[in-house]
Amino acid sequence: MGFLDSLLGGRKKLKGPAPDRLFALSTAYVTLATGHGISTKGVAAIVSQPLATADFESIVADMEEILRGTGEETGTTIDTSEDEHGYRWIILRDDDIEDLVVGINAVSDALAVGGYGDRVLAAVFAFQDSKGRPVYFIYNYKRGYWYPFVPAGKQARDGERELQIKAIITDELPVEPELERWFPLWGIPI
Fold it and tell me: Which of 32, 94, 141, 143 might form a disulfide with 38, Cβ 3.0–4.6 angstroms?
């Protein structure tokens, strides 16, 4: 038993999700596009629960400035939005999905290093199928898993299509195994 274990009363500290799971989308998108007609829309977002502290606001402002600066080289643009529940969305636009993944990762890393990793909820990448219907890939930071979200109208989702996409992508992405954790995100601003 180590020193930390003795402080925790013998309890083991739980490991967080593997951060590299976010990067799985960098290769999975090829399978989606070439084999299944699901292509990126060139936009992604990270959503967090903001704190009204100067430190949190400073980290977010610094990250936005860095992304704007690097965006001049990569072509990535950045915008922010706040939804009706008070969650902050940092929205990135770039035709290169790898730039989107790297940008989203940079934001989540900055918040984690600043001590606010628990405030990051999800990353959302917008895709569309061959008929132009929206398909979102949501990365749940708390669980370290991806899942598809296919809206089918106002407050309705296409569960059958989501399961089809799960079958397509399971070998490429770590997909959330518990379907009840496939939370819909209504009003995604991307």
Answer: 32
Joined tokens for residue 118: 């628990």
CB atoms within 10 A of CB 129: 16
CA quadruple 66, 140, 79, 81: dihedral, nearest 10: -130
> What are the residue ranges of helices labelled H in 86-158?
97-113
Render pLDDT for 7-17 as a digit per residue (tens, 0 to 9).
344 444 444 45
CA 92 – CA 38 distance, rounded (Å): 19
User: Beta strand pairing status for 39-48 and 88-93?
Assistant: antiparallel
H-type alpha helices, the chain: 3-7, 25-36, 54-74, 97-113, 159-169
Q: What pLDDT score does 162 carry?
A: 97
- What is the C-alpha separation between 134 and 39, in angstroms, rounded? 10
pLDDT above 90 (res 150): yes
Helix axes 159-169, 25-36, angle to 10 degrees: 110
pLDDT for 15 equals: 44
Q: Indicate the SS3 state at residue 86.
A: coil
Maximum average pLDDT range among 14-18, 51-55, 166-170:
166-170
The DSSP code for 122 is E
**Measuring CA to CA, how many Å separate 180 from each of 78, 128, 145, 147, 177?**
32, 23, 13, 11, 9
